[in-house]
Amino acid sequence: MKVLVTGTAGFIGYHLANRLLKEGHEVIGLDNINDYYDVNLKYARLEEAGIQKGQISYNTCILSLVYPGYRFIQMNLEDRENLFTLFREEKFDCVCNLAAQAGVRYSLTNPYAYIDSNIVGFINILEACRHNNIQYLVYASSSSVYGLNESIPFSEKDNVDHPISLYAATKKSNELMAHTYSYLYGLPTTGVRFFTVYGPWGRPDMALFIFTKAILEGKPIQVFNNGEMERDFTYIDDIVEGIFRILTSEPPQGNISWHGKEPDPSSSPAPYKIYNIGNSQPVKLMDFIRVIEEFTGKKAIIEFKPLQAGDVRKTWANVQALEKQYEYRPHITVSEGIKRFVKWYNQFYLIKSTCLYDEDFYN
């Protein structure tokens, strides 16, 4: 199968591309390598996959030195002309769109970045799929779409009409846009709502990365809502497993039982589906911090802060639909996941800490 994976210099995209390549699929990776966070981490991910930084230039395909079936191209999703040319020339079987402007808090200060990437970029993906006989589009949504919903655990059948950040609103918009194209043009689409992804090669703006860095450096961490927060932390391998099973299975068919008088938001008479991908075990934030302390060997210096605008107090994924359709089961515990992240962090940044980083401890 020939797959376009967008966002392959990013956290999830990097891991998904590697998984697809190891399973024998051909992958074209696309990313604009923007400076939302340290580009050196993005280049390092690409180099791990055999893409040399010195060879990267805009709109030029670079061959991987590690995977014969992997090529990378630097491009913006907003670049409609070059994106459409790429689709026409490469003739992809399917597309996994993970490229987006991420971050709830950043959307409060730079809203236009979200419109450009998440709205304009996504309509370009949809149009390119529509006009180039793409068999299946899988795209990233987010648990943030649940917004003010307090029905726990969050189900794909819940109403998500009350987002509380622009980032969440753009992700809900992506789901609506995808449904329109599924309905009008028969384009099979599946949206996947990720729940607090973490693990090696993770993003520096995420809690685990921020907390680990600060704790190891002896600096304070800011803990919002006075620590009264819970998150359904989901390890990267479990996220990728869910995406892989969806992407390599038969695309969705229209739900013949769907009825407009009692509409199911997770499906449609069109070939359209929505799934949560989460660990389905919410963890209290203070417990999460205590596990980081355990594996760094250092005590956190905590500054408690009030709840920030755009944040929700608790997330919890109902993954029964994914379990039923794809026999999906998350299996990495938070303790194991944090242990793996701290090990990677120390190796990547070559930090000497008081923790016992010996192979017997980790294996």
Keywords:
disordered C terminus, 363 residues, 17% strand, 11 helices, two-stranded parallel sheet
Helix content: 25-40%
Largest sheet: 8 strands, mixed
Shape: globular
Average pLDDT, all residues: 94
E-strand count: 14
Secondary structure tally, helices:
11
N-to-C order of helices and strands: EHEHEEHEHEHEEHEEEHEEHEHHH
The SS-based structural class is alpha/beta
Strand content: 15-25%
The N- to C-terminal Cα distance equals 35 Å
Query: What is the CA-atom radius of gyration, in angstroms?
Result: 20 Å
Unreliable stretches (pLDDT < 50, length at least 5) are 352-363
Strand order of the largest sheet: 3-4-2-1-5-6-7-12
Provide an overview of this structure.
The chain is an alpha/beta fold. It is built from 11 helices and 14 strands. The strands form 4 sheets. It has an 8-stranded mixed sheet with strand order 3-4-2-1-5-6-7-12, with helices on both faces. The two termini are about 35 Å apart. About 45% of the residues are buried. The C terminus is likely disordered.
